[in-house]
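Help needed: design a sequence for this.
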């Protein structure tokens, strides 16, 4: 029987496999914004890294020690801005993808340490949210960005009609 935990880990791992396909994206498309007001692929991959670090450092490590989540202000826009700056700092596509893979494996390793039943317990420090609900929300967000990238790349392959 597949548990919530194994499903979350499975999807997190599948995103690692998917990220490897991004190494084939041209450097031009890697940094090109999806449209005039959004990020590009590199920004999203860096965004994944930033939020995986946040989850590891401010959520999972606390859960593993049996402590409540810290009451810290989460500056979403600031984290996202720093992720975008990092993606465009000169780091290579391969290095950014490899960093994502490394950090995502770290996150998966910590998730693996948690007992299955912990996923259905409320998160200390987050009102009325179980760990599985919290992680499913993050997973849905990851999948939304994956779909955004996939649709963008599919649109780039559209034939040119003359």
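Sure. Designed sequence:
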């Amino acid at each position: 029987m597949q548990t919530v935990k194994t499903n979350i880990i499975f999807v997190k791992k599948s995103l690692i496999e998917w990220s490897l396909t991004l190494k084939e994206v041209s450097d031009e498309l890697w940094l090109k914004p999806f449209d005039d007001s959004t990020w590009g692929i590199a920004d999203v991959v860096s965004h994944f890294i930033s939020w995986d670090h946040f989850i590891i450092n401010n959520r999972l490590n606390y859960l593993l020690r049996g402590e409540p989540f810290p009451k810290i202000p989460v500056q979403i826009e600031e984290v996202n801005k720093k992720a975008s700056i990092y993606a465009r700092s000169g780091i290579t596509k391969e290095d950014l993808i490899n960093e994502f893979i490394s950090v995502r494996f770290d996150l998966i390793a910590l998730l693996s340490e948690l007992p299955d039943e912990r996923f259905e317990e409320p998160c200390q420090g987050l009102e009325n949210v179980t760990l599985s609900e919290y992680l499913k929300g993050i997973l849905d967000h990851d999948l939304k960005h994956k779909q955004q990238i996939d649709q963008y790349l599919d649109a780039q392959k559209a034939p040119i009609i003359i």
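Residues 131-156 form the longest helix (26 residues).
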